[in-house]
Amino acid sequence: MSLVNAVLIQTLIGRAVVVVGLLGLISGCNQTTAAKTQAPPVAVTASVPVKMPIVEWDEYVGRLAPVETVEVRARVSGYLSSLNFREGQLVKAGDVLIIIDQRPFQAAINQNEATLASSKAQLIQAKSAADEAEAELKRVQIRRNLAQKNWDRSDRLRRENAVALEVFDAREAELALADSELGVAAIKIKSAESAVVAAEANVGIAQSNLDLAKLNLEYTEIRAPISGRISYFNVTKGNLVSGGTNDSTLLTTIVSTDPIHCYFDTDERAFLKYVRLAREGQRKGLREVRDPVYLALADERDGFPHKGYTDFLENRMDQETGTIRTRAILPNKDNELTPGLFARVRVPGSPRYDGILIPDRAVGTDLAEKFVFVVDQDNKVRRQIITLGPISHGLRVVRTGLTGDERVIVSGQQRARPGETVTVTLEEIVPGKESLPDEYEPVPESEWLIPKREAAANAEAQPNTAATLSKSDDVIDTVAGGDLR
Hints:
Layout: H1 3-37, E1 42-47, E2 50-54, E3 57-66, E4 69-73, E5 78-83, E6 90-91, E7 96-100, H2 103-159, H3 165-219, E8 221-223, E9 228-230, E10 240-241, E11 250-255, E12 260-267, H4 268-279, E13 292-297, E14 306-313, E15 323-330, E16 342-348, E17 353-358, E18 364-366, E19 369-375, E20 381-392, E21 395-400, E22 407-411, E23 422-426, H5 452-458, E24 466-470
Parallel strand pairs: 1-23
Antiparallel strand pairs: 1-22, 2-17, 3-12, 3-16, 4-11, 4-24, 5-7, 5-10, 6-9, 7-8, 9-11, 12-15, 13-14, 13-16, 14-15, 17-21, 18-19, 19-20, 19-22, 20-21
Helix pairs in contact: 2-3
């Protein structure tokens, strides 16, 4: 066989192998397509959403702060002679905390008592002199009246030439002398009355000095102006402290513990939601009512065990943070809540309404959209866009997109495709136990921790303590303002 024929035969054999391979590949593809056509529908698990009355509770991060903070300062200067409290202990309003050396103040009282006694004696003398002046005036008036009668008689006899001229002149001189004595007696009366007024003023001054000395002695016992937890000693026994001025020595501080405040900041979107709900009449603004508040500390993961209510709302939005500050007040009888702690706060974010809830695992995400797969009556899958709300009863709230009667795929949605027919197994959704109630009412005034009629009295301090009393807004790191109405 020639070389050309050999090459030709090998070429034909290669082409035949390629044709056979292509025929086998085509046959395999046909078999795969047939297998796919004959595959059973995808099996999925679907559930009907739960429809139940709920309340949406908005959650914020808050910080605890005392209702009152007091800087304890002395009102008088002196040496500390006694410290009668233990650092960090709870104190009651009126407890004696610190005593300043009382001996100089007792000596001042003794001195002022002596001065007062002397002033009272001078007053008695002045009154006696005034009484003598009045008696002398009466005697002079009697002599003047007698002199007037003698003169009248002499004058009548003189006109009848029945009395000697020198006798008439004597009677006239006696009348003039009586008038002069009467004027002197009147001046003595005024002088005595002035002396009485001056003596009474001296008694008043001495009494005021004595009262001030007694008050300063009371100020040496520095008492707690409020009930709460006291801080450490800023000054120890034996030190000289200044008092009664703006630069008075700071001795210690006290913060109230029961009740306690919690401050939290609401973002602008939530603020607008509250405004809209109040405008539509679905709820009242926070300035009109006291809504309940639930609080949990950082280590409290099972619910929100602490309950209080809102009692303050700022008057404006903070321009830098775009938030508004709200304040809640809570009872703290067991002192479990400590000022300065962070806490999770839940406030009602909606009125009570019939919500639609589904498991969170049924929700898919596509860029900025949230969706679920819904199985129609003919078991075909449909993709449904939804709008989500918060978690309630362990389920996700669906605000828009579902009516509550659909069959939503909760398991197997990774294998399901829109438009395909699936085999559906129905599964009932069981709501979990919610730590917060499904309804709420504003807190009535009878249950307020600080009623309106007592709010002013709560800010009063004891008179023997120079205490700077302030609300504790300054302990909050963030600032906000506005109105949720």
